[in-house]
Amino acid sequence: MSAAERAGVVPVAAGEAVITARGIRVRRDAREILAEIDLDVRAGEVLALVGPNGAGKSTLLSVLSGDLKPNDGTVELLGRPVGAYRALELARRRAVLTQANAVSFPFRVIEIVQMGRSPWLRTAELAEDQLAVMTAIEVTDITHLLGRRFTSLSGGEQARVSLARVLAQTTPIVFLDEPTASLDLRHQEEIMRLARHLAADGRAVVVVVHDLSLAGAYADRIALLDHGRLDAVGTPLGVMTADRVGRVYGLEVQIHRLGASDRPIVLPLRD
Amino acid sequence: MTPRIRAIALVLLLAGVLVGGIVLSAITGQLPITPTEVAGSLLRAIGIDTSWAPTDPIVESTLWVVRFPRIVMALVVGAALAVAGAVMQAIFGNPLAEPGVVGVSSGAALGAATAIVLGASVLGGVGVALFAFIGALVATLLVYGVARAGGRTEVVTLLLTGIAVNAIAQAGIAFVLFVADTSSREQIVFWQLGSLGGTLWPQVLVVAVVTIAGVMLAFTLARPYDLLALGERNARHLGVNVERLRLGSIVLVALLTGVAVAFTGIIAFVGLVVPHIIRMVIGPAHRGLILASAVGGGALLVLADLLTRTLVAGAELPIGMLTSLVGGPFFFWLLYRQRRRSGGWA
């Protein structure tokens, strides 16, 4: 029996909703950040949240992950209102990679990754802990950094170590807030491929990305936000039309497809 | 050296320094006492009679009435202050947070001075300690409420808040001195200098009980403190009840600082220097840090107290002055380093 089963985290079949958000509205200082949002997140899919700066992507991610209580609306996570969970119960069901990942004291990289196991303290076998940590280290390509101090790493390295910590948490739901922001081309691709692997493994992955082509290449579904409202949700090809992207971003774009691929590539119109 | 071996080596070293300091403190003074007499007296106290035991009742009473309570007090006060510093740094997410620097010690001192003037000292040590705890708690809450943003504290905000809290508390102490009668005034002034002289066993008991409980509590919270280094939001994502941890830790810091200050006055920088050096040797993981800080803080104050008694023949220096003399420059160096690393005030 795995730690998750012992802790009562029930597995969900691929395609079933793990998060159901209805009528989400978030106001801050009389300004509407999010409004009228209905969204499902399903097991076994990569759902990309995209939209211009300030559209409310990170806020929506906070609401879905239980960090932020919306002014109106409900969020159910694995069958229970997200606010009804204790912090530890939630930590066994969803992991979050935040944008800022500063560490106050010079911990070693291996210690940081091991921190991801702390929700499973006293439920997991040692072997299970080690396997989760080793796997997370391998897939994020940070083996060579293990002995270093986190505070001495470059931004991109810190991002990958933080991601490894999130993966070591081995939760059925994974939130990634701009995981590719400070990464080079190769690591960007690898992180998105990794998200796909997690989804193939039956997990639900919600990822905020800025690069529309990257979202188009790896997401099962895309949710396009515009001024706090969901403009469209659906397959990459369905959501990313030149008209819609042009209108939301206020920039003329063209959509390309390589051969018969259903993965759109978004390019701005340039002279 | 692997981190584990370094940790063990450090603990052994600190324990050696501690034992050496204790023995030196016990044998040094106006009445010279041999190490064997100290050992014999201690053995007799636990029921083992040896030929080492001192026959002179003056030696016996010097040890048990004057020197031992003082040594134990130095030990527990040092442990309390060092652990209070480590806990404070954990919840502020800043290695420069320290009870003395940010004004928690001054808050405790104001509380203790008020207790002396109001006559709460007739309740014995407990009354002064209680008032000191309340003063420390108010100061900690104030600093915590004002200086933090998003789970971290910028150095400049922390220090400015500390200046403000220190100023308010010092004004309060000045007012208390102003309204106090002559004997209370004398008592406060003397106590404010910071001294372990004249320590009584009942006082030691109060400080020791609170310190042992506090260090044990801090030790059980070591793992959440580690996670807190990732930032409050990430700690919460990993299952830490941040609000409860924060509140509990504030009370813990106030308790440890309060009892330490209540009987010995303000002894600054122990909570800064000790955890910092230990972090440099064994790394920032709080399990080892808290334990080693307790031992290291104890060892440091036992040695410092010995120095205050021996540096100037026939006189006793205030111990608070001595720790500030060493801690002040150390603080400068830390500030300088942090400034250079982050390219300015960060």
Low-pLDDT parts of chain A are: none
Number of strands of chain B: 0
CATH class of chain B: Mainly Alpha
SSE pattern of chain B: HHHHHHHHHHHHHHH
The CATH topology of chain A is Rossmann fold
Number of H/I helices of chain A: 10
CATH homologous superfamily (4th level) name of chain A: P-loop containing nucleotide triphosphate hydrolases
The percentage helix of chain B is over 70%
CATH architecture of chain A: 3-Layer(aba) Sandwich
Please report which band the strand proportion of chain A falls in: under 5%, 5-15%, 15-25%, 25-35%, 35-45% or over 45%: 25-35%
List the domain count of chain A as a whole number: 1
Task: Summarize the structure in words.
The complex is a heterodimer of chains A (271) and B (346). Chain A has 271 residues and is of the alpha/beta class. Chain A contains 10 helices and 12 strands. A 6-stranded mixed beta sheet of chain A has the order 6-7-8-3-9-10, with helices on both faces. A 4-stranded antiparallel beta sheet of chain A has the order 2-1-4-5, with helices on one face. In chain A, α4 runs parallel beside α6 and α5 runs antiparallel to α6. The model of chain A has no long low-confidence stretch (mean pLDDT 92). Chain B has 346 residues and is mainly alpha-helical. In chain B, α1 packs parallel to α14 and α3 packs antiparallel against α12. The two termini of chain B are 33 Å apart. Classes of the chains: A alpha/beta (271), B mainly alpha (346). At the A-B interface, α3, β6 and α4 of A face α10 and α11 of B.
